Amino acid sequence: MPLEPVRFAVLGPLRVFRGDAELELGGPQERAFLALLLVGAGRPVAVGEIVDVLWGAAPPRSAVNVVRRHVGSLRRLLEPGLAARAEGRWLVRDAGGYRLVTDGDSSDLLRFRALREEGRRIADRSPAQALELLTEALSLWRGPLAVGIPAQARAHPAFDAVDRERPAAVRQAADAALRAGRPDAVLPELRQAAARHPLDEPLQAGLLLALAAAGHRSEALAAYEAVRARLAEELGIDPGAELRDARDAVLHGVLQGARAASSGASSDASSDVSSGMSSGVSEEPGPDGSAASAPAPAPSPSLPLPAQLPHDITAFTGRDVELDEAFALSGADGSRPGAVVISAIGGMAGVGKTTLAVHWAHRIADRFPDGQLYVNLRGFDPSGAVLDPGEAVRGFLGALGVPPERVPHGVDAQAALYRSVLAGRRVLVVLDNARDTEQVRPLLPGSPGCLTLVTSRDELTGLVAAHGAHSLVLRPFDAVQARAFLVRRLGAERIAAEPRAADEIGELCAGLPLALACVAARAAGHPHFPLAAVAAELREAHGSLDAFARSDASVDVGTVFSWSSRAVSAEAARLFRLLALHPGPDFSLPAAAALAGLPVRRARPLLAELTGLHLVGEHSPGRYAFHDLLRAHAGELVHERDTDADRRAALNRLYHHYLHTTHAADRLLAPNADPLPLPLAPDGVHPEPLADDDRALAWLTAEHAVLLAVVDLAATSGQPVQERLACQLAWSLEPFFDRRGHWHDGLAAQRTALDAARRLADPALEARGLRGLARVEGRLGLHARAVPRLERALALFTDLGDDTGRAHTHRSLGWECDQQGDLPGALRHNRFALGLFRTLGDRAAQASVLNSVGWYHALLGDHRQALTHCFEALTMLQQLGDRYGQAATWDSIAYAHHHLGRHPHALLGYRNALALLRDLGVPYVEADILVRVGETHLATGDHESARTAWEEALVLLRGLNHPDAERVEALLDARDGHAGAV
Asked: How confident is the model at residue 703, as a pLDDT?
């Protein structure tokens, strides 16, 4: 009869399986004996070594006999029915000791070593495949080595030697991950290993490089400081060369070659790790744009850096002198810090400031390995919607990886955080279309390694005087430059055939590149039109753009745009005019269709006509925008050619498009909310279809800035109907702002809504406005403002007899009580809300508040009552399909079970909650629950599982840059201290 296969596991809890059955391994000595044989990994283990492991320095006289009894017991365990004194298949006598016969199929340790060796062998030629092998090897570790044997046995050097193989494999995997461009793949294991071995400098160096390559540069530098301090405190030494080199690589963005340079001298258990990394040399342009060989920091291709520059124009031409001056100002090697200002004389628009800035930025971008930031400040937007500096700073902080919940309140504090994040980094910052120095100042980096380019119609003398900015004056094209521009767009042959007509076109366009681009697009679309005919059309055209015309221009530049807009169909021309009503900063095809009152399929070719003639630009797929000069022209045309009624109808359609789509998103994100009934959408409005909450979040994210602008525009329209729409839109955005942590934007929108509600003198709207503003103030920690607003809102809802409003306001007051430590008050308010929702028959809201009531019962120690409410809530939430609510309720159920001592039930509940949250992608709540999972494991005595849960939580919180990470670190430190004391 063939022997059943036997499998041994020592990389974690000590376990043995015969077939599918797990075997009982006996007492502590039997376990220690087996573990010693397994870490021997096929080598004979001398009897004296076995005695030393089992009894230490004072073995009994019968020690050898006891060892023999253990040998017999283990043989019979592995092979039932084995004859007495028979050697058997697995445990054999060898070289004066005993050897366990294992291989890579039967021993997890040997499998781990085989995978690691194969990963080392192929690392040079296939780092991605090596990473897969090493990841598989590390997955075999299910905890500390040989869990379940006595501590005295575990202290034997044989176990220590195997223990060192795990961090060595982590370092090996980190090298492969960097070379494969996948630093995130190894970060969780690397973080845990670094936490277990805080003084292992090669391991800590690998962590620094992987963190930086994964975009967590600030965390990498903080980790270095923590290791440096610990080395000084515990060993009295400074970091070694490898760790210092890794820190320098993070500071300077040189991640490709850093690991190779630093790991070559390693001689410990990781000496077989082959990094194979090579340092890079790049070629960067000199001041004249020619290539000059020079070493330059080369960022890792995997580094998720901000790269926000708009696309460069391939046909860029005519600015050689200005580019030379720009390169001279910035320094050929990017070494000159400060702000470089591009300013047009006389407040000129359309002269090509943005085009030059973007082209210049692309030319020097490789000198800034930490990325490029770009923002259109809309300083001279014809709509008057100038971008608030705080909004711009928050956008930059988001691009730099700062979660919204970590952004402080107030522009000054936000700007200080922005400067701190940029400290020590080399980032190129482009601030386009600035209004004045005050708008720019909060956006200036404080780091000398950064370069800032600012474009403005204002000369920004304050920036030059106070910040040492360099002024670069940009003028319209002269005749030679204008002709060169047309040659690049239309071809030298066509221009040479009609040089006078080409020169006249340049003159009629007043040398403005924007006007020339529109004319060139029209001429390129009709290659058989003589240029003289094009010039004649321009002379005969009439337009007006007084706000942007040069005083010395022979022809109004508006003439060019008027002529261009006449080249499109009547429907496209109407759409061009109506688009001037959109508040910006950009728009989508469905929004354009709503303005025109057309189906999307009919609006699509019209928009294509406009982009084809450069009247509208598509700056990213599906997102369109005007140049402000063209927008101003469209604005003049819409007021000249469309009636007030037409304009009001177009804006009304636009507002309804955004309101109805946002409302649909709101219902997906917060099915238990209480939105106002929607007004009937006018004809021509087709809200965008949103299939699920993922699509809803994606749409809201894309339209984020537009929706804020629409709220402002509608609220300040002076039209009561539109002001009411502004209120509804702001309140429909509340779940999105809360889910994404955009509380500063939510604060602005809710203030606008409350002001509009008060102007309308409608108590029902004012009550909602007070509650909406209070909620976001509470999220920002402004509780002293939030509570009085909620109390006023509750009084208004009560006077109105609005029980739904009362119920939701009680819930908000309960949350405020919770934040201030008043748990009985929190429970009281939620009970009020529950009673009202039951009377109203609102099942979605009732299910949500049932969980809240249960949660507060649990926090107050009434765990059985908590379970009653939470299981009732769970049944309703499952029927409603509310996954987020189900996750929150499973968390409450698990918490109550934990405190009733039902730890297996608690762990099951937490697993259910985590599965839902991971599917929904809610990392903060996931981390919060993992902390409680660790507490439950700790209560069962499973210290290693507790540590694992907390380490997973710490990884998530660090990824969010969330302050709760410090609390989890304290839990881990306390566990380490307790273990050390024991």
From this structure: 93
CA atoms within 13 A on the CB side of 354: 21
Which amino acid would we find at residue 903?
H
Residues of the chain with pLDDT > 90: what percent?
A: 24
- Whether residue 671 contacts residue 575, with contact meaning beta carbons closer than 8 Å, is answered with no
Predicted pLDDT at 802: 94
- pTM exceeds 0.70: no
* pLDDT band at residue 570 under the 50/70/90 scheme: confident
Per-residue burial over 113-137, b = 16 or more CB atoms within 10 Å of its CB, e = otherwise:
bbbbebbbeebeebbeebbbbbbeb
Order of strands, sheet of 21-22, starting from the edge strand that comes earlier in the sequence: 6-9, 15-18, 21-22
- Give the HSE-up count for residue 273: Cα atoms under 13 Å, Cβ half-sphere: 32
Other Cβ atoms less than 10 A from the Cβ of 277: the count is 21
**Is 70 exceeded by the pLDDT of residue 271?**
no
- How far, in Å, CA of 561 to CA of 635, rounded? 12
CA distance 794 to 241: 64
pLDDT of 359-384, one tens digit each?
888 888 888 888 899 998 888 766 66
* HEC readout, 152-173: HHHCCHHHHHHHHHHHHHHHHH
Q: Quote the CA–CA distance of 439 and 316 in Å, as a whole number.
A: 29
- How far does the chain reach from its first CA to its final CA, in angstroms? 49
Separation between Cα atoms, residue 840 and residue 806, nearest integer Å: 11
253 contacts 370 by C-beta, under 8 angstroms: yes
Q: Go through 787-816 and write b for each residue having 16 or more CB atoms within 10 A of its CB, e for each that does not.
A: bebbebbbebbeeeebbebbbbbbbbbbbb
Cα distance between residue 254 and residue 369, in whole Å: 8
Report how far residue 420's alpha carbon sits from residue 408's, in angstroms, rounded to the nearest whole number: 13
pLDDT of residue 304: 46
- Do the beta carbons of residue 356 and residue 435 sit within 8 Å? no
In terms of Cα–Cα distance, which of 209, 155, 149, 153 is closest to 184?
209
Q: What is the pLDDT of residues 797-825, one digit of tens each?
A: 999 999 999 999 999 999 999 888 888 99
**pLDDT band at residue 334 under the 50/70/90 scheme:** very low
Residue of 869, 868, 863, 865 whose CA lies nearest to 833? 869
Are residues 564 and 522 in contact, defined by beta-carbon separation less than 8 angstroms?
yes
Tell me, what's the pLDDT at 193?
Answer: 83
- Are 424 and 221 within 8 A, CB to CB? yes
Alpha-helix runs per DSSP H in 81-216: 108-122, 127-139, 151-154, 157-180, 187-196, 201-213
Query: What count of other Cβ atoms lies within 10 Å of the Cβ of residue 260?
Result: 17
Residue 341 is predicted with a pLDDT of: 47
* pLDDT at residue 260, rounded to an integer: 38
What average pLDDT does this structure show over 905-924? 86
- Residue 314 confidence (pLDDT) above 80: no
Strand 91-94 to 97-100 pairing:
antiparallel
Helix H or strand E segment including 245: helix 241-252
Q: How far apart are CA 125 and CA 137, in angstroms?
A: 19
User: H helices within 441-491, ranges in order?
Assistant: 461-467, 479-490
Structural element, H or E, at residue 292: strand 291-294
Looking at residue 187, its amino acid is L
Query: 977 pLDDT exceeds 70?
Result: no
Contact call for residues 8 and 48 (beta carbons, < 8 A):
no
Interval 475-485 mean pLDDT: 84
Q: Please, which pLDDT band fits residue 337 given cuts at 50, 70 and 90?
A: very low
> 454 or 300: which carries more pLDDT confidence?
454
d(CA 184, CA 213): 8
Cβ contact 42:100 at 8 Å? yes
CA R_g for the chain: 35
